[in-house]
UniProtKB/TrEMBL annotation, chains A, B, C, D:
Molecular function, one GO term: DNA binding
Protein origin, superkingdom: Bacteria
Database matches in Pfam families: TetR_C_24 (PF17932), TetR_N (PF00440)
Gene3D superfamilies per UniProt: Homeodomain-like (1.10.10.60), Tetracycline Repressor, domain 2 (1.10.357.10)
SUPFAM superfamilies documented for this protein: Homeodomain-like (SSF46689), Tetracyclin repressor-like, C-terminal domain (SSF48498)
Protein name stated in the entry: Transcriptional regulator, TetR family
Entry-linked InterPro entries: Homeodomain-like_sf (IPR009057), HTH-type_TetR-like_transc_reg (IPR050109), HTH_TetR (IPR001647), KstR2_TetR_C (IPR041490), Tet_transcr_reg_TetR-rel_C_sf (IPR036271)
GO biological process assignments: negative regulation of DNA-templated transcription
DNA bind region: 26-45
Ranges of residues in domain HTH tetR-type: 3-63
Length: 200, 200, 200, 200
DNA sequence: GATGAATGAGGCTTCATTCAT
DNA sequence: AATGAATGAAGCCTCATTCAT
């Protein structure tokens, strides 16, 4: 059935694309990895570019659903932000290969970066909505909501990627380490680093 | 004189590499941009790869010097961190082209990523040293120093890159906008986003 | 079918390589000569070098078979040597293009010469075995078998190549001329040039 | 003085050319080997081609003189042939690098081969003249003089080259081994390999 | 006379894409 | 639906040659 082959190809593609980046990834290698003939990829996707875009669309839906779902438990922005941070870290760790792809191509060649920045913007928007409500409800300090959201996104993604790709072999990051990273981020995002009394 | 040509080539190279990424950048275009013949590049650098590496080495020295210098004014970690944040934002804005290159290749193809992650680590180390002293002097909350440093680096770099490449034409970001970004970051890093009383 | 294209390419390759030598032969020209696209060669052979090596292997088998076969008629070393000389001259004349390639590259650039010398050694070995048996059976004068074999090989190959490439157009050497060359070689190899009585 | 530089360049050139063949030899390497700047070669020779031709002319004179000189001792063709064989083997061993160049280029690319074959022809002519007089004086068996001369030349050159380049390091071939090779060749050329009584 | 930085035409190789089966 | 042999445009790199000093 067609659906199967397509998913086979997607799975091979994320790995290869994430490993080498778009340009260095070869259709030959993706085909071999997927266990199909090169022609088969072209039967399902018009071009390398289109395969890539379809792949991103497919994977993006999942992460957005997941992030939105994790906020439905509660209406408290503080808790929602905490959930969000936890979920992002967890997702990025578990799908490091896709995460890396997302980030690297976003700052990659000008030809594809708009598409990716738009996608990243979608994720940041989810954060921003929480921040916005937090400020409205006077639970968060007033601030430039957009800047803050990007900063949080940056902090999370760079920290996690750094960890995920610290060692090429180690794909396994312990639950414990994940908690630790969430804590580090939370501490900074929630209370900052500077001990208040001393400020100024 | 040789030094001149080399710098000409470097300047052309940062732009082209940052615009298209390593793979899509063509030696032809770099040569044209630099106003030299293609062979001239190969007279000075053994390969595209080597040009790239030499370029990164050359540009990294400058930013490291700059960051180290901006901390020599004072011994107060709080002030040093502030200086660092200001300087990083300013530098990244002014050299967005190099900054983007650094970030994008760090998460790019495995072939070059180790080199780049090592370089990013050097920058993060500068932050980490300040954090470390801040904690030792009980000016900063105790925390995982390394994680915090990476988070700060991530927050700054993603925020700035997002701004710099928001619009391909606009290379000019106002002084005012820079201050605003520094403030956003500082606010988050110094006091966090959550109003303390409400926490938990 | 794949076998066909490969043989097409081989045939074009012997000619072009023999005409210009390895270095001056252009893949473009080989492709054009073979009536295939340049990429097709690279689909079947990893590189120019590999095409060359594969070609030599392919052609060497044929000549070795032929030489071995021509000795199976008889056990008389004198007759075997005569057959060998005849066959070598005939083969070299008919496949002058390959013969030339073999000889020229054997003394060509160090990079490939070992491979070729090893191949020539295989041919010389066939001669040497006959010489050896001839001496054992007291039909040939005792001598340094290896030296003698190389000398015979040198005499045959240089004489024939000289004839084949005397005139670039004339690819046709008459049966008669072939006999004559075989006779010249045989006379020298069998009885020497000096009239015995006069010797010293 | 100009003469010095020219000879320096010649010496570097024979080595490099003999090692890699004409095509793979780089002017850069010749210059470095000669201890002069690349431009200097072009000051003395119009092109790589011209350097090559000049080099061959220069070295050919020496060998022809030598061969002609070694026959002036005696009028006996048998002795002259013996001298010739000895001298050729000795020369080829001592100037293996030039010898190899001569042979390899003679069967090399069609572009230069005519020039080289003409040169080889000059050497063979020296042999042929001896053969001719030997036959006239009824000291040698009547035969195709030209074929016999080429065969002798082929036997000598292939045997010696094989020996010289048997091992890349060993440039030193003992006096003894030289005598042995001369003997092997002489035996074959003078009396042949087949014991007369048995012939047919 | 001598130098070596600069040049650019030319060659090898890669790889996305096509298409006949 | 699937295949994989064939294609050729495009890019990296080499290296003989030039020329200003």
């Amino acid at each position: 059935m067609s659906q199967e082959k397509t998913e086979q190809i997607f799975q091979a593609a994320v790995e290869i694309f994430a490993q080498h980046g778009f340009e260095r990834s070869k259709m030959d290698e993706i085909a071999r990895h997927a266990g199909v003939a090169k022609g088969t990829i072209y039967y399902h996707f018009k071009s390398k570019e289109e395969l890539f875009v379809a792949l991103m669309n497919n994977r993006m839906e999942k992460i957005k659903e997941m992030l939105n779902r994790c906020m439905s438990d509660t209406d408290d922005p503080v808790k929602q932000l905490r959930n969000l941070l936890e979920m992002m870290v967890t997702y990025l760790v578990q799908n490091g290969t896709f995460a890396k792809l997302l980030i690297s191509e976003a700052w990659g060649s000008v030809e594809r970066q708009w598409e990716f920045r738009a996608r990243i913007r979608e994720l940041v928007d989810i954060i921003e909505r929480v921040i916005h409500r937090g400020i409205s409800q006077e639970r968060f300090y007033p601030s430039n909501e957009s800047d803050t959201s990007f900063s949080i996104f940056g902090a999370v993604s760079v920290l996690v990627l750094q960890e995920v790709f610290r060692d090429p072999q180690t794909q396994s990051i312990s639950e414990e380490r994940i908690s630790q990273m969430v804590d580090s981020i939370e501490q900074m995002v929630y209370q900052g680093v500077v001990i208040s009394g001393y400020q100024e």
